[in-house]
Amino acid sequence: MADQSTAYITTPIYYVNDKPHIGHVYTTTICDVWARFMRFAGKDVFFLTGTDEHGIKVEKSAKERGISPQALADENAAEFQRVLGDFDLTNDDFIRTTADYHHRQVQEFVRKLLESEAVYLGDFEGWYDEGQEEYYTETKARELDYTSPVSGRPLVIAKEKNYYFRLSAYQDRMEKLFEEQPDFVRPEARRNEVLGRLREGLADVPMSRTNFTWGIPMPNDPEHVIYVWIEALMNYATALGLGEIGGERYSQRAQYWPATFHVIGKEILWFHAVIWPAVLMTLELPLPKCIYAHSFWISEGQKMSKSLGNFIDLAAIDRYIAAYGLDSCRYFLTTQGPLGATDADFSANHFHDIYSTDLVNTVGNCASRVTAMINKYYGGAVPSESTADNRLRIADHDWPEIARRTVGQVGAAMDRFDLAGAVATALGLIRKVDGFINRTEPFKLAKDEPKSAELGAILYQCLEAVRIASLLLWPVMPRKMAELWQALGLQIDPDDGGLNELAAWGGIQPGITVIKVALFPRMEQPELTTGANA
Ligand code: MSP
């Protein structure tokens, strides 16, 4: 099981009866940023995403199209993999819940649950959301006005004989978990919601269905199919082989358990924050460190909807990538997304503002300014920071200390999954370089005292700070930062770790040649629409 050097991050597994859209791309991208950073920081990371392929919805859609559910799942899982492949994601595996190894292990886990007496056969009647395959309590159903909060369709009364998971028996253990592990659910607002609902008391949850067949049968009673939510949650463990102790997957991957972060959208928090830990407790497996539930993207100020024409589907994302480049999109998603407790608005104007302010005017401009001056005053050869025996301390900037602190702060923010905070800190380093240039005015110095020790030191320090910022920004903008490294003559493979050593002050050797870079072209705001058919 996990020690300090491993890390495990997961996305939800996505339903194959939906087409990939901004929500899927968002969650997977932010996990990718974290995974990249942690690998660079020297951790042995396992990053998992995949597709959730069973359930009544897939069965129904397949029937409508006259194909088998497996054929539908194959088609859409391939589409998800293709699409996610366009976003430079570095997931270590892509799990599909129709895989044999998942099937076998889920049955094994359920066998254990049956032995533990956490599962019993009982009668059930309740308000059911057919789209979400989720039951609601009377109170919750009333609150929702008996309509699905997701599809808007009416809830139905469903009746069945089901196997139940005895969630009610976990009340005390759940409360204790939330008390002892205050960071178990993040952000805080989401934790409070779960706590509130927890205090209303836990009810048992159905664990099987008999009204359809597209799923994994209960091992003891094949008439029943295992409830898709219980089965889907288990993907996080079956991907690592935890249901087949000693098996090949297990020997290669068990060390990654438990997850550092299960990153999810807020709508599926209850399953992850309450049901999943109770299942894990029964299976006697260690619990994840944190369930991080982000909020939702809305679009141009309104909830995304196909009928409003503001839905950010793949075609829309592709238009942004074509106009601004993939890394700019990754940057926008990471820094402006709904990472916290409130929803975030995807708007064309906001996108353009962020592109211009942060990427053109800050990152791009600073890198270009510094490399241009080194070219102009030193023919591209990096000057030295030191006079013969004394490093200059110019304009009260203790650069090695500033850089060291920045690197520490970015790492601490990443540890908390505060990706926007981490990026803002890295960008702050670039802004300090800009401020430093404005105060020390190397362009004037170059006129008065060409090639003075002071001028050389200033430019060295600027370049060094830009280099360190670029290491910190790489997880978000891997292509652009690699482009910058190439211009600086640096060969870096972040997958090999070494961030701390590389980020130590003084990494650039004086005398090497740097090329002037232009990373982000300034541009007029393009006409971009969000809707699919726009
Ligand atoms: N299959 C389940 C999850 C099972 S996990 C064991 C499921 N799938 S889903 O295809 O509906 O994907 C849901 C996830 O997509 C959300 O949790 C979130 O990560 C992402 N998003 C979907 N719409 C979103 C937005 N509008 N904004 C941000 N992310 C959202 O639920």
Keywords, separated by commas or semicolons:
534 residues; single chain; six-stranded parallel beta sheet; four-stranded antiparallel beta sheet; binds 5'-O-[(L-methionyl)-sulphamoyl]adenosine; Isoleucyl-tRNA Synthetase, Domain 1; Rossmann fold; 20 helices; 2 domains; elongated; alpha/beta
Description:
The protein starts with 5 loop residues before the first strand and ends in a 32-residue tail after the last helix. The mean pLDDT is 94. The protein is built from 20 helices and 15 strands. The protein is of the alpha/beta class and 534 residues long. The strands form 4 sheets. The chain has a 6-stranded parallel β-sheet with strand order 3-2-1-12-13-7, with helices on both faces. It has a 4-stranded antiparallel β-sheet with strand order 5-4-6-8. The structure holds 5'-O-[(L-methionyl)-sulphamoyl]adenosine.
Summarize the structure in short.
The chain has 20 helices and 15 strands. The protein is of the alpha/beta class and 534 residues long.
Number of strands: 15
CATH level-two architecture of the largest domain: 3-Layer(aba) Sandwich
Distance between the termini: 50 Å
Instruction: Please state roughly what percent of the residues sit in beta strands, choosing from under 5%, 5-15%, 15-25%, 25-35%, 35-45% or over 45%.
Output: 5-15%
Count of distinct structural domains: 2
- The H-level CATH homologous superfamily of the largest domain, spelled out, is HUPs
Secondary-structure class: alpha/beta
What value does the Rg take, in angstroms?
A: 26 Å
Helix content: 40-55%
- Low-pLDDT runs of 5+ residues are none
How do the strands of the widest beta sheet line up side by side?
3-2-1-12-13-7
Instruction: Write down the overall mean pLDDT.
Output: 94
Principal-axes geometry comes out as elongated
Largest sheet: 6 strands, parallel
Question: What compounds are bound to the protein?
Answer: 5'-O-[(L-methionyl)-sulphamoyl]adenosine
The quaternary state of the protein chains shown equals: single chain
In CATH's first tier, which class of the largest domain applies?
Alpha Beta
CATH fold description of the largest domain: Rossmann fold
